[in-house]
Amino acid sequence: MKQAVLFVSIVLIIFFYGLGQALCQTPSQLVIGLMSSVRSLKLDPGIENSLLVKLKGANGALSSLNVNHYKEASINKLNAFKNEVEALAGKFLTEDQAKGLLGQADLVIKRINGTAIDVIGISGGIVEISDTSSPIYGASVLIPSGALSSEELITIVEELSPEPLPTNLTSAGPVVQFGPEGLTFSQPVTISVPYYEISGIPEEKLKIYTFNKTSNRFEEVPVTRRDPEKNLLYAEVYHFSPFQPAAPSGDPDAPYFVWTILVNVTRPSGGKMTHRNALVIHPQCGEGSDVYCVPDRISSLKVTGPGELTYDFIKGDYWFDAFNKYVLRDFLGRDVPFKWYYAQEYRAEDLPSGEYTFEVTDIYGKKSSITRTLSVDPIPCVDSATIQICRILDESNTNCLEWSQANGFEGLPTDKPLKIKWDPVFYGEKIAYYDVRIYNSYDSGLPIYRSSLTADTEITISASIVGRILLPNAVYQLNVFAWDDYTRNNSHNRSHSSLVRFATGSVSLSNFPIFSLARVVTNHYPDNYYELLYTAQVRRGVGGPIMGPNEVSISATGPDGSAVQLTNYTSGTFWQAIPKPASYQTGGYIFKAVDNEGRETYLRDYFNKARLLPLPILISPNNGEVVYTLTPTFSWSPVDGAKTYHLLVEKLEGNQWQTVFFKSWLNETEFTLPGGILENGKTYRWRIRAYDSYADSLVDNRSNSVYWYFSTPQ
User: Fold this and answer.
1) pTM recorded for the entire structure
2) Distance between CA atoms of residues 381 and 205, nearest Å
3) Which residue stretches of the chain have pLDDT < 70?
4) What are the ZU5 domain coordinates in residue numbering (predicted)?
5) Taking the chain, what is the end-to-end CA distance rounded to the nearest angstrom?
6) Could you give all domains of the chain from N- to C-terminal order, each with its CATH number?
7) How confident is the model at residue 8, as a pLDDT?
8) Which site among 105, 620, 666, 703 is 20 to 30 Å from 175 CA-CA?
9) Ramachandran angles phi, psi of 420, nearest 5°
């Protein structure tokens, strides 16, 4: 009965909200969601397979380059699916289950019928919406001869905005999705999108915007022509994505929100966590550089929620910026830095439902705000024990590996497609959406791969992408996220499974050398000394003992093919420094570990930005000073390009320096030492190290101050 309620609710939700969320998805994505619904019913395998065959046929037709096949064949397959569902109703399906499936199928058919399609080849052509009753009537694309190198199935369909517009823009028309999304052209193509008039805003102020998923923000597309009689805006573009007319709004000199995120997170351990994220832009920074100057222009950023709940993004403690280091972006030339402000809080209970207002204030007192409604409904975690990784050896041979709590998955290829499967989560009356993330062997904070969201309970990673992100004989981790919305930034609730490990090639997770650290950074020291530093740590098997120089040898190969042997070993870590290199090679560095029995593993670290950070200049306590307090305040000058600092204090005992205090990830340029550290009548020294990132695994460059000495009186 619970499943029956689920499917009836799906239909009601879809139609009560005017197709709401479903319009965010292509017909193919909707078919995949329908396939997921069929699987969740746990029907007799023969019945399930018969239904899925028809849906797979419909999905195949939607990928066809035959226009008639696209519509007629896909709708015929969907009608065949509907006929079978009707025949099963009251026998193998309850009436409510059948009603839910039929409602989803009707929605897909409606979506297909609302799509303008045509096959365009090298000679070019035009595709347009000619149905005068369509909200996007007049939308079109003119593709000139030579813009395409092969035939493509071109589509135009109304789409909900993939992300909410930033607070400095007002919608001036529907979102038009030109497809296939991401298709690029060798010369510009001309698109047209319809707009509606906005009271008080001249038509010449209307512009076209598109959401760049790489930089995570809306970008203006220059308007080349306006047709006020037909209410159409024209532009020349080199790629397909959703395009939307909009008009500037609000104070043009005030900071504004590009996006905000407020999401309740359920973790597999049962704990709760709240993410509050916001991307803020200040207009004074200018296009192209605005992601860098925001901290200098913003005075405060806070969120106010129900019951006078207020949360401040405290500058220094919770303001966080990072480089997005997804491997796919590196390989595809899309390694785009972006600034985000991030706060997370671990909670024992869910965040209250209700309205939350984000407010930003700049140093001139100008403000901007946006209100989000949070509906807390915790989503269950995907059970990691249900995750399967399948090797697709050929079209007819898919081999799914069984997961072992002790050993994970082993023997995965890096030259074949991989399929990752999991059991669905049952989320009351709602549909869950999923994405899969893959990480290297020791860092679960930064994924090297993240899939698109899907309503299905499996994804396939193509052989070409597998070859880009995975190395032979290497160890990785993955988990599956579940979301309550098809667009991540609109989600209210999410969860994630526990991590599962897998190995490629011949690696055994129980006894092979496995990296628990591998990194390349620049180190800048006083007296004009600098180096490129390689560090690595290796364990015997997952979670096993640290291996030393008598058990394993470590080397690293740079992007230019040059190899370095890590011959030094200190406190469990191998390292090698290259003094004053003539140049720095940015890109992927491949570390290799070989044990005494010839077993070898690899790990790739990305060195993205090479620069010598200036040295921190110490201010107080002064060099040689006698400090008449046991809780002195250490201060130093800010370092250009540094995001955080580490403070080290050492005490002289005999002729040895011993660490008495170490504080990492300081975001201000002063720190007061707590009591109980210093003693009277002792000699001390202190040093500051600067880092170019808040996240340890993202650090590419660091610099070190001189040591300054001080003493305490008897």
Assistant:
1) 0.73
2) 46
3) 1-25, 63-69, 160-163, 213-216, 273-296, 308, 311-349, 395-397, 402-407, 428-429, 444-445, 488-489, 694-695
4) 114-249
5) 80
6) 2-113 (no CATH), 117-248 (2.60.220.30), 256-374 (2.60.40), 384-504 (2.60.40.10), 513-607 (2.60.40), 618-711 (2.60.40.10)
7) 40
8) 105
9) -115, 125
